Amino acid sequence: MTEPKVREDVGAAPAPRAAEAAGAEAAGAEAAGAEAAEICSALIRIDTTNRGEGVARPERPAAEYVAALLDEVGVAGTIVESAPGRASLLARIPGTDPSHPPFLIHGHLDVVPAEASEWSVPPFSGEVRDGCVWGRGAVDMKGTLAMTLATVRRRLREGRRTRGDLVLAFLADEECTGDLGSRFVAREHPEVFEGCTEAISESGGFSVHAGGARIYPIATGERGTTWMRLTAHGTAGHGSKPAPDNPVAEIAHAVSRIASHEWPVRLTPGVRALLDGLAAALGTTIDHDRLDEEARRLGPAGRLFAGTIRNSANPTRLDAGYKINVVPGTATAQVDGRYLPGTGEEFLATIDRLLGPKVTREFVNYEEAPAADPAGATFADLAAALRAEDPAARPVPYVMPGGTDAKSFHGLGIASFGFAPLFLGPDLDYFGMFHGVDERVPLDGLAFGTRVLDRFLDTR
Fold this sequence. Notes:
The structure is a single chain. Helices cover 33% and strands 24% of the residues. By secondary structure, it is of the alpha+beta class. The longest helix has 30 residues. It is globular, with a radius of gyration of 24 Å. The two termini are 46 Å apart. The relative contact order is 0.17.
């Protein structure tokens, strides 16, 4: 039988070999998406709960699982421990051009606690239900690690490497201070990251449905961290007697002043870029003089800037006394402080004024606010990868209200973008999944993410 002639004009069907290649690519992408779901479930089933202050389930079993997955495709990962069981996995995959800059993908293996009685499914089951993988870490951030692993494994099986070296760091202890994870590897193993100037990690690249548009915030910065312990000293004595310098009262007054303080709006360049991007994507104007009201008006889009237009300080712990009829000699409190880039001195001066003369502070954790370039080539490549998979995507720069391991790598001169690409339905509250009950990630969202990551890695 004579093979039909293939037309070469516009709109013609692809030639057989091209069609075969396209079919193979589609099959490879589908397989990677399915593998990401399997890896996500498996990682969730490895309980790596981090309760902070050194109390945690060890990350080593998860690091060993990741090392085995990489070993299957010829990558020799290295597991390093900062303390018994507190393990991170590091790997450097050679690229095709030794002169090209290496690129880092980092993420964390630990998760926050989950109270099983509050969940619809066991939080460490990794159960697949209603088109989602459920469990603690599905969003924050074992799903992202799974997408990364599935994408890297697919590329290596197909013989595709990045131009520069690809560095992977799957880390312990992000859900505390990073002392046993990112800070440790940055301090003790800087050679792994030699030459890296840019990276991607969590909390960005996800779809937000707002005003008829699909917005994809790509994180280009985050607020700085000032976790503080406050201490008031006084005179111990009997609870029935006058206590003019009662430290419990002093700490309570200080905490009340901090909690009720109204921090002024401070628009940083990163937040201004976000507001401009949102206004363009939504076809509206955003009044910079009424940003609290505008955040409420814009709904899901407003949530992208509501937490980053000002500094914040939230009291989170109080400790004092040991018996009801004893006035203690000291009382303490802990405060989670976050400050915008360039406002650190103003933030601390305000805290000191609110504390008053009888309460002192010390840092439990202090980290500067890192930033990446929203106008550079890497942001453009990230945005292009999203648009290639979702032509309706409207990528915008985004400043995270919280913090990530990006702060540790900032100290090595590495700028991190928050980029964990997910296509999400309008009914799934992505922000509510972080540290929330019934955390879950859609299967089709994971598949979308692997395709986007694969496209982006083609640019590296």
